[in-house]
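Hi V.,

You were right to ask for the full record rather than a summary. Here it is.
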Amino acid sequence: MIPARYAASRFPGKLMQDLGGITVIQRTYEATVSTELFDAVYVVTDSDIIYNEITSNGGKAIMSIKEHSCGSDRIAEAVSDMDVDIVVNVQGDEPFTERESLEKVLGVFYEDDADRIDLASLMTPMNDWDDIVNPNSVKVIVDRDNYALYFSRSPIPYPRDKEINHTYYKHKGVYAFRKQAILDFYRLPMQTLEASEKIECIRYLEYGKNIKMVETRHEGVEIDTPEDLEKAKKLINNQSLLSAESTVAEQVKLSVHKNFPMVPRVVFGKGSFNQIKDILAPARKHGAPFIYLIDNVFENNTSFIADRISLSSIDKIIYVSTAEEPKTSQVDALVTQIKHEYQFVPSGIVGIGGGSMLDLAKAVAIMLNNPGSASEYQGWDLVKNKAIYHVGVPTISGTGAEVSRTTVLTGPDRKLGINSDFTPFDQVILDPELIRDVPKEQWFYTGMDCYIHCIESLNGTYLNTFSQSYGEKALDLCKAIFLDNNLDKEDADAKLMMASWHGGMSIAYSQVGVAHAMSYGLAYVLGTKHGIGNCIVFDKLEEFYPEGVDLFKEMQKTHNINLPSEICANVTEEQLDVMTAVALSLEPLWENALGPDWKSKIDSDKIKAIYRTL
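Predicted structure:
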């Protein structure tokens, strides 16, 4: 039974709203029928509009005879003369109803304690404090056997002792009743608790009925507000895109322009890091910490970073080693640690360090809201759920990680970024003071990462005016920083921060080129850090970027930088094969570097030959 009232108090007419060309109530009806769990499915309504919507599309509907204040009363009237054992109530505003959850709630009537159960319902774990305190989200607490103790629109239990790691549960409005239980409900008058909370299942508890709760991880979207409807539309649109026929997909591919996100908020200036408390304050959620992931090079120099952060009692600093390139396993371990320690999703993740630390922070923020391992999301546009609020504070500049759409990780099978609309930071703090003590060689290698971004972007086949404008500005700044010996350190640091920002923006469309692809191969097999790996490879790429390599060599000479040599002298043929396979797997980079027919211009033998010169 799907109770359906047209005049919903919070969103009148919501069940007749369009959702991907079909009304909300029709979608809910079709989803329920498609589970194939029921002998019959009915919409029970007081509305001619809803009744006609269902019946005109071949569905079954029942018009209520009396006026009813809740869905259970409406169902009780409809089933009073039916020969049924179990009646399931599916909410009309649940268009993403699915079989697994309904099977779970029906399954309790076949368990050992079935004789005790008057009705069963669903609950799902909550970890977002905003949702927990939202009165539209009904919370439930249960005993050790998962029988409901109480339902409330308030957070229950109240978290007076924040050290107790309690899991909050959201009540899902799906019920399975014994017929007698719902008929009893219909005859019993409303009491004060139900009247106060406006939660109908409280009536069962007030009259001593037993409600067995079943946990489900299926969240779906309940259409309670216009905002919920927009979320549902986005979900429907995503499903439609995934199932579209190839001919339609090809037409879209030919006409669509990439709609890339950018960092929405950025603060720049000497000493701006001191404002971090005020910058983060609007994003802080009650009971949810900020987690600071900080490069462990600052662990013994707390006055430089840690002492300037005003921690609340639940905030936490985690020092992380960046001796090696960030790994998907490292991301998974950090996410597991945070979830184990805190009952709520954090207010946000703050990454403080160089490119590796910023990439880790972006990846952790993504994986706190997405299931599985980080390795499952290596690639383009694989992330489905928005990352939690995340902030980047670079202490090294040049990588562009503070602004880019990707987080580069080494996984079990490959080195590849999580490249998604949800990757960019929500806030970046650019304080040139934080990069003042970077060792000279590290300063050069990360700066050259920016320079190489520019060269590969400006010479790429994906180049457009957007990328060109950022790339040209970043290139001019790199020339000033690395070729002008009269530039003072403070000015150079400020310029390098902006060069990194512009360089990162320039690769939004281009994905960069040959040096980056081959550097990924080095990192995967030899563990070579990204910045120095780019330099080692780029030094041998005169064939692809002649002018860029000449200028790079001039910058090396100006700063007396000697690149490591013979790093591939002892690699085996098997290792070369892996390096090459990793490099060649990055097809967008090769297409940007050499064009759509890149496979006719480069092959594994040529790439191996370049690796052997390193």
